[in-house]
Structures are given as structure tokens and as C-alpha cells.
Amino acid sequence: MDVRALLLQQWASCLDQEDWFPPLEKVLEDITFEQAIWKPVEGAHSIWELVCHLLFFEKRILLRFLGETTNEPKAENNDATYRLPTETSQNWQKTKQEYFYVHRELEKILATSELEDLYREIPEDNPLMIELKSLAMHDAYHIGQIVFLSKMQGAWAAKRSF
Q: Which part of the chain is the DinB-like domain (predicted)?
């Protein structure tokens, strides 16, 4: 298995192909707006905030790779990457759909780009291959948090295939 195939497998595991942890698309499938904004204690992040955080970094890497740095999301610090848009059910759905779209766009680039493009440095970052490896690990970490938050609310149905 080459590096690209390995990374594509990791990337898919984070979104829509079950592996050692459930993919985010399945985890978020039945999460309501109320569950998405719920926090177990003051200072903790909600499911929606975690999805915003994941989206921030994936969108930033996508736009940097495409050379669209003027459109990339900005944050004054890491805490700001969890910031929510106006809290409405419609915006919750939009956030999920944007995350799924950005994740799939990065997957398409990974699957179709020439290897030398995947290894060129992205402005202010490492090559895309390295960034996607790190983002997949980052996603897996936060997917675990999202599953735990959904379990705390009784929202996690045992939909696992094993």
C-alpha cells in the first residue's frame, strides 16, 4: 500500500467509512440542534463547537492548498476556532454540510493530484500529505469527544457494525 492509499483510507475513516472508531458523518446523523449545542459543564465544548473547530482547520488547509489564502478562515487563537455562527437549527445543518463538503474536497485532491503537488509546501504549513495525516489524527481525537458527548445525552445509538 502506498502513502496515498493509506492516507485515503485514514481520511475516509474520519468521514464515512467505519474503522476502529465511527465516522463523523454517521455520528452526526441524528444529532439534533439541541444536542449539538449542549455542554456538560461550563467551559466544555459542545458537539457543534467541535465540528466548527474541525471545519476551521480543514477549510484553512484546503484554501491554502488551492492558493486562496485571502478567503481562508482566520482566528486570533485556538479558542476562536470553536466559535459558532448564529445558533439556529438551519445553521447547524449548514455547518455539518460545509464540513462534509470540505472534507470530501480534500479527499478528491488527495486522490487525483500528482504526487509532487501533494508534497509541495502549502503557505504557512507543511506539504498537503503531512497536513492531511495530522488532520486525520486530529479528527479522530475530536470524533471521540463528539461520541462521548452524544453518549452523555443518550443520543448515541449502537449503530456500529461490530
A: 24-146
Stated pTM of the model = 0.94
Cα–Cα distance between 143 and 27 in angstroms, integer?
8
**Burial class of 59 by CB neighbour count within 10 A (0 to 12, 13 to 18, 19+):** buried
pLDDT in tens, 123-153: 888 899 999 999 999 999 999 999 999 999 9
DSSP-derived letter for residue 146 is H
Q: Which residues contact 151 (CB under 8 A, 6 or more apart)?
A: none
**Contact yes or no for 147/22 (Cβ under 8 A):** yes
What single string gives the DSSP state of each residue in 90-142?
HHHHHHHHHHHHHHHHHHHHHHHS-HHHHTSBPTTS-BHHHHHHHHHHHHHHH
**CA–CA distance, 128 with 133 (Å, rounded to integer):** 8
